[in-house]
Design goal:
about 300 residues; alpha/beta; Rossmann fold; 8 strands; binds adenosine-5'-diphosphate; binds magnesium ion
Length: about 300
């Protein structure tokens, strides 16, 4: 079981889209995958065709399970509240694809509860996952809310690895930098119990390199210089991704052979490679024109 959280201090950068597309891609490859939605807006569920309502379905909400765990009241096992969405990957001969879904009222309740308990409770989700799922899933992908939420820390503490992402806009780079610091703080905050590793940041909603502006170039430079280890693969701005998000069937399933599906395949490979190598060995995105630079130019610079 490898747990990967997708996180940024910023909202709207593409965390949920990334989580569901990478999760589906892994399951299409025959792996057993759990997508875990820690975001009160519950959009990972929507993207996989599951929408919980507070009246009838909150019993299935991960938010309720977390609140109950914090309140030390009896709760259902996570395996009894999760949804099996394997049908989505069936046509690809896929593995198991499951979802632990969020619901707004109950997840907000959990978010508020985490603010009132000591920080030593932050690993509660990690403990639940290890106890219940160590044998069941190859990968657990966690969709997190922006870092202002107490649930963000809970998601990072539950993870072995934290992947971040930016858009071609300066503030999103700052969002990833803050996130990286937050990942590094988890170990001491949980007194050594949780040791998530920062996996770098990729560019989501990128522009084609042929039409890069000065801002695009500067943002990549900033990512390199601030230790964000930008991925070689980026994910282009593509309406297929946003449209699929609202169909309950992520883009990789609808367009596996289109460039928008293939880039998730390449990104996933880079992510998995990073999980098994030290960061000094990670290939990172190069500045445009960098490969053409002669030794003399490099010396002048
Ligand atoms: N590469 C992309 N191309 C086009 N639209 C995208 C892309 N990535 C995300 N989106 C869209 O942007 C919006 C915000 O993305 P989302 O994944 O919900 O971000 P977050 O979870 O970080 O708030 C959604 O409508 C989503 O479909
Ligand atoms: Mg989201």
């Amino acid at each position: 079981m490898k747990v990967i959280a997708v996180a940024s201090q910023k909202g709207g950068v593409g965390k949920t889209s990334t989580c569901v597309n990478l999760g589906c891609r892994l399951a299409m490859d025959g792996l057993n995958v759990l997508i875990l939605d820690l975001e009160p807006q519950a959009q990972a569920g929507s993207a996989l065709g599951i929408n919980l309502t507070s009246e009838s379905d909150s019993v299935h909400s991960l938010g309720l399970a977390l609140s109950d765990a914090l309140g030390r009241v009896e709760r259902k096992a996570l395996r009894d509240i999760m949804f099996d969405r394997s049908e989505l990957v069936e046509e690809f001969g896929g593995g198991r694809l499951c979802l632990l879904a969020s619901e707004e009222a109950t997840m907000t309740m959990a978010q508020n509860a985490f603010v009132t308990v000591p920080f030593t409770m932050t690993p509660v989700l990690r403990r639940m996952l290890v106890k219940e799922f160590s044998e069941d899933f190859d990968y657990i992908l966690i969709d997190t809310p922006p870092a202002v939420s107490s649930l963000n820390a809970v998601g990072m503490a539950a993870a072995d690895f934290v992947l971040s992402l930016v858009n071609p806009e300066y503030p999103t780079v700052k969002g990833a930098m803050i996130l990286k610091e937050a990942v590094q703080a988890v170990e001491s905050l949980t007194r050594g119990e949780c040791t998530p590793r920062f996996l770098g940041a990729f560019m989501n909603r990128s522009n084609p390199e042929s039409s890069w502006t000065v801002e695009d170039v500067n943002i990549l430079g900033l990512m390199i210089n601030s230790g964000l280890y930008p991925y070689v693969t980026d994910v282009r701005r593509d309406r297929r991704i946003s449209r699929a998000y609202f169909d309950g069937k992520p883009a990789v399933l609808q367009h596996p052979n289109h460039s928008c599906g293939k880039q998730y395949t390449e990104l996933l490979q880079e992510i998995l490679d990073r999980t098994t190598t030290p960061e000094e060995q990670w290939p990172i995105a190069e500045m445009p024109g960098a490969e053409e630079e002669t030794e003399e130019e490099a010396e002048d610079a």
